Automatic annotation (TrEMBL):
Membrane topology value: Multi-pass membrane protein
Protein name: Uncharacterized protein
Chain ranges passing through the membrane: 40-62, 74-96
Record's keyword terms, sorted: Membrane, Transmembrane, Transmembrane helix, Transport
GO annotations of cellular component type: endomembrane system
Length: 109
């Protein structure tokens, strides 16, 4: 089981790094016009907020998994639910052209 999880790590890293590249032309051209954050700045901000949880969640998850405070199965349900909620908020923010909601959704992912 651990070997299978380790084999999927490069796929996860590639997906996390390149999943927003298809939205770059849309974010640079059409979305978020008239706001304080436009174009490349909107794309860069969303990309930075999208990768920020990848720095923090492994440490939080490892500390909770090693402690006896929480059952590890709770985290196995909690983290994917957080990803689904974050993706929903991000999609809603891009659709509504509301930069704050899109950034918050990217931060939850």
């Amino acid at each position: 089981m651990r070997l299978a999880a380790l084999a999927l790590l490069p796929f996860g890293g590639h997906f996390a790094k390149n999943c927003l590249s298809s939205l770059q032309p849309y974010l640079e051209d059409a979305a978020f016009k008239g706001t304080a954050v436009e174009g490349n700045m909107a794309y860069g901000l969303i990309l930075a907020m999208h990768s920020l949880p990848n720095l923090v969640l492994p440490m939080i998850g490892a500390s909770f998994m090693s402690s006896a405070v929480l059952d590890p199965t709770i985290l196995l349900v909690l983290f994917p639910c957080l990803v689904v909620v974050g993706q929903g908020l991000f999609v809603a923010g891009v659709y509504l052209e509301w930069i704050a909601l899109a950034v918050f959704g990217a931060l939850c992912v």
